[in-house]
Amino acid sequence: MVNMTNLFEKFIELKGITVNSNGRTILNIPHAIIPADRITACIGPNGAGKTTLLKLLDGLIQPDTGTVSYSFASKTSLVLHHTPMIKASTKTNISLVKDVDPTIDARAIDQVIERVGLKGLANSPAHKLSAGERQKLCLGRAILQKPNLVLLDEPTANLDPNATEQVEKIIQELTQQGSDVIFSSHQLAQVQRLAEYILFIDQGEIKEKGPVGPFFTNPETSAAKRYLQQELITD
Ligand SMILES: Nc1ncnc2c1ncn2[C@@H]1O[C@H](COP(=O)(O)OP(=O)(O)OP(=O)(O)O)[C@@H](O)[C@H]1O
Q1: Mean predicted confidence (pLDDT) in 14-20
Q2: Among the atoms of ligand 1, which is closest to the Cα of residue 153?
Q3: Cα of 52 to ligand 1 centre, how many Å?
Q4: Domains plus CATH for the chain?
Q5: InterPro entries, per this entry (predicted)?
Q6: C-alpha distances out from residue 180 to 3, 34, 117, Å
């Protein structure tokens, strides 16, 4: 048997995981090695458990049973799909990250605002930003925490092609600068553009995982085949 732990420089091992909600098991992963090398995409139907898995990997939620162990000293940053803004400027909203890490200084904040392309909107009210601009703000906040693993929940949902391209560029830059990324997405073309490894989740279980190329050309499970067919029809 292949020892999966030798295949990746950085990985997360899940053992005996269950996450329950309202008497229902929403995540059930007896054993999995999740690569945290470069970019991994988490795909699957609505309600499959992708967001729950990202929250679990971040430590935002605890499993009801089982363990999550990292092969590295993890410093994660999770960007969820809907992040509320306070009624203040973009800069003030980004600066809220100082609540998490008070050592982040004003210069670093200005640099990140520029890096994510929000310099011209730094003093604009954040609650009036477009969906794409909000997502850039959230990525900026994540970057400031200097994570070595960034967890992104549908980072380009509801974004137009131009904003999607800009956010994808930021994601690629993250890996170039030493942060690995695990993201969820319903956009299969995006997954093929960005990711090297796939986790296919269905009904709370990791049904299939592996390198992106073979997954798309030759999925092994009937659940993955069905999902890919449906997504390609509706794309
Ligand atoms: N806090 C919660 N309380 C109750 N049920 C929850 C909670 N969070 C998630 N669930 C349920 O767990 C299941 C998995 O949800 P999750 O958001 O992880 O799926 P997902 O794959 O990210 O879905 P989508 O693609 O629609 O965002 C769903 O059936 C959802 O209703």
Answers
A1: 98
A2: 22
A3: 6
A4: 9-81+148-234 (3.40.50.300)
A5: AAA+_ATPase, ABC_transporter-like_ATP-bd, ABC_transporter-like_CS, ABC_Transporter_VariousFunc, P-loop_NTPase
A6: 22, 12, 21
Cα gap 125→121, rounded to integer Å = 8
Q: What's the rounded mean pLDDT across residues 156-167?
A: 89
Going by C-alpha positions, the residue among 183, 140, 156, 146 that lies closest to residue 54 is 183
The CA distance from 135 to 163, in Å, is 9
CA angle 176/178/181 to nearest 5° reads 85
The pTM (predicted TM-score) of the whole model is 0.92
Q: Residues near ligand 1 with C-beta < 6 Å?
A: 21-22, 26, 44, 46-52
Residue 50 and residue 42 in contact, taking contact as beta carbons nearer than 8 Å: yes
Contact present, 93 and 112 (Cβ < 8 Å): no
3-state secondary structure of 12: strand
